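Project standup — Tuesday

K.O.: blocked on the structure for the chain from last sprint. Re-posting the sequence here as requested.
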Amino acid sequence: MFMFAVLAFLLPQVGLSVPAGKCTISDPLLILHQYYRSGDFVIAAVVSQIYRFSNTIIYEKHPSQELFNELIHFRPRWTFHASMELLSRRGRFTPNYKCDAENIPAAVIGGPNFDVGLHMAAILGIYKMPQLTYGTAPVMSTKERLAYFYRVFPSSNQQYMGILKLLLHFSWTWIGVIYVDDDCGEQFIQDVLPTFSQKGICFDFIAKIPKIASASQVTEMVGEGFETVRVVWGSSANTVLVRGEIQTMMILRIMPHILEFENGQMMSKVWLLTAQMDFTSFPFQRSWDIHFLHGALSFAIHSKQVPGFQTSLQKRSPTMYKEDGFIREFWEEAFACAFPSSVTEKEGREMCTGEEKLETLPGSVFETSMTGHSYSVYNAVCAVAHALHSMYSSQFKHSTRISHWRRRPLDHQRWQLHGFLRNVSFNNSAGEKVSFDQDGELVAGFDILNWVVFPNQSFQRVKLGTMEPQAPPDKVLKIHEHVIVWPSQFNQTRPLSLCNNNCPPGYSKTKIEGKPSCCYNCLPCPEGKISNQEDMDDCVQCPEDQYPNKDKDSCLPKDISFLSHTEPLGISLSTCALSLSFITSLVLGIYMKHQDTPIVKANNRKLTYTLLTSLLLCFLSVFLFIGQPQKLSCFFQQTTFGIIFSMAVSCVLAKTITVVLAFMATKPGSRIRTWVGKGLSTFIVLPCTLLQATLCTVWLATSPPFPDLDMHSFVKEIVLKCNEGSPLMFYSVLGYLGVLSLVSFSVAFLARKLPDSFNEAKFITFSMLVFSSVWLSFVPSYLSTKGKYMVAVEIFSILASSSGLLFCIFSPKCYIILVRPELNKKDQLMRRNH
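H.V.: unblocked you, prediction finished:
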């Protein structure tokens, strides 16, 4: 077991401008505190944790003991000076001059700010001395220096990605940012925030905390502080990301007091703190209210309680470690007392006994738990110890006595330690693995903490989740949201941090010109589209078989629609078709019963029977259109209608031509008599019907009708219909039927003044007028309707036009046959003819 020496330097937060010639290298500025304990190896530490105001320099003693009116934030000169001290013999400031290996550090631990590591590396990197920092990793341009530098702090980029995931997890897209005005802060603004913007995070404000170089800048800092406070508490963002370092908390604690000074109202904010920060304070902030931190979230270097830490901590006291100037300085400030040697400087304080108990201090003064920074220092010491053990074990693996090599000068082996340190991997006493990656950064994750402040101004940091960069992408961030205590103002509900309220389902976002992308208006989804989540960029179309509900936030299945036999419209049309079919059959029966009467014989019985049969089939063809469209019904629907109607109109045309030719044949010497006969009607009806049948055959052979779904005509319905297959053929069939009707109407119109006894022309003229009117109005009506109503229009046109032919042509004849049989005699017909 090795014994490790500790050589520590405490860098005061003071500065000095000394006239040239007043100090020499042999008489340097004094470090505020140095602490040394002997051991087999020396591990040095350069830390900066005390802020101190100074007195006026009167040059009656060394200037570093009476510095003038200056408050310094981690000045480089002290780090450079402490680093050169490490290269000198203890007690003498002679850098780079050592006659033996006594007190040569095996490694140096620096922190907590990045400045300490950066300036330390400028000196110690030349000598290839291993350096471990437990704060923010400094940005180095020299690869050689980087090769000797190790970060007992996970990658900052991983932390920022964790912060981004946390913001997105809570949907906090409208935030404020506060950062320290230093190199790391500027790098954060330039490199990290653009990545946040790309992922949808917007910034209401980006404010900086000035880095003070001297007391003369305090006034300027206060002025900027006032402005920052106004911006922060005047912001609509409920979440504020603070990118800072260990001293940032002291400045952050001043902000609520500035607001109180201005009589402003302090609104609750969810502070999101980076892992570089810790709870620190000026002595005069001891009694200040810290309730503004209640509900804050922070990232922290993953830590775990180390066995024996609490016991060791409780044993620490100025009486036991009198040579430790660190602990005396802390003791006086923590317990508000003074040791005899400093009574004159701290008048009014009680005397320190050295027996005060650390556990009696409130958490706002001293935390007894192991924080992330403390855990990093512990791991740094353990890493050096294991690397030294591995190095000497490999060099002297055959040696049985450590004493043979324990005193071997380390000067010649210092550079060799790097290979072992970079590859070190071990489990510490807390049972956790410690190792470095290829960039010399600690392979570890972050804890996510929730700050809970109690009425007595003590606080507790509760672990609510982790950020594990090495985990699978979906498990990198783990949050137990149910344990979070939110700021009091939010009544224990998750705070919103948005530029405007979320767009609810049924709405989509629309950009507001001149404002960040997180600020937008909400527009209702257009017809046929929905949004089923909050803040959707665009509304989406429902599937074809669904339609939006009233609120346009979900899709409902469409109803199936077709002209059914069971619905009122279908029942009405079916009833009409059956009634007209019955009437047609009745008329046909009347004609057949009275087939030998003059009025029946005078109007070509066979042609009349053919016409009535065609009309009967026309009425019955309606049933092909009613009901759910099937393959067979669609196949014959339009063609059957076209052929039967063509036959009916052809019969009307034949009857009209027959009447005309019959009267022309009665003129003396007329040769037309030879054309008048039973074969004339066949010669007219058959070719006209066959021509329509040919058109229909071509239609069925090339592009037949088929069952189809109409998804778009109605919002809430899917219409089952028969697709015509070829619209051209459909309108060709209708067109041919229209030509036949026009010819028949024209011939009947010309023959309308012939004698009534033998003349049906008047009735045919009127019937064809009705027929043509129906079908002329059919085309625009058919094209302007949708779904099952298109079918209903066609059925109505079939029934109306067929009824027109039936009643206009046959009702007068049936009247004579049934009601006025005395007129149905040959002598009556002859008398009327004359």
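K.O.: great, moving the ticket to review. Residues 309-360 form one domain. DSSP finds 21 helices and 27 strands in the chain.
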